[in-house]
Sequence to fold (259 residues):
Amino acid sequence: MKRITSAVLALATVFGLGGAATAQQKDWKTVRIGTEGAYPPFNNLNAKGELDGFEIDYANALCDKMQIKCTWVAQDWDGIIPALLAGKYDIIVAGMNATDERKKRVDFTAVYTRTPISFIAAKNAGTDISPAALKGKSVGTQGSTIHANYLEKYYKDSSIKLYPSQEEANLDMANGRLDYVIADKLALEDFIAGKGKDCCKFIADIKRDPAIHGPGVGMAVRKDDTALRDMFSKAIEDSIKDGTHKKVADKWFKISILD
Fold:
């Protein structure tokens, strides 16, 4: 069953039912899921304006396993945690790494994705991605992300450019306005295979910094919603054991997303 609904319908559910909606949320028979809808192949809006991608399919599979009704809300990345805290939805499923900094504001479920992080550049670029080699070079990524934090810590002598979405950074790379881009490798693969195929190539994967990157991607909930967190954590762990996670991941990726 498709549970993809428009943001307008999801918001109508939240604000139109008043106290009844609040009562339903606490027994978690209905869960509103927030996602960015602009980070393919994890989450994106397809040509029909519907949410699509690995995380959409995977979360829907978890909802089926738990026998709950899930609806979706699209939210710009830079406001995705504030909107959760404001009650716009109940859980975030949007490629969000469970970092210590974010844990000050929200709780995370079990990890369901852990993938390489890579630099891309023009096809004639060298393979050295050290801070010294990229000194004075322009490097782009999506703002308010672990990639932005990584650049700000290690590449202070580069010209760091932050964007509202990863797609905007990729397009500037394709149009020659950036020297390098850093992001999740699997999110960059679609770009390299499509709009970036004539301009760009993978340069190298980075070594993760645990203080910046955390243990991997989890689903974020409000700190008071421990029952919801534990419910989804168990569903994630069960899905990894019974093969559901792999089945959904294999539809979208050619490599393991839990390395």
About this structure: The chain is about 40% helix and 20% strand. The CA atoms of residues 117 and 208 lie 8 Å apart. Confidence is low (pLDDT under 50) at residues 1-25. Residues 226-242 form the longest helix (17 residues).
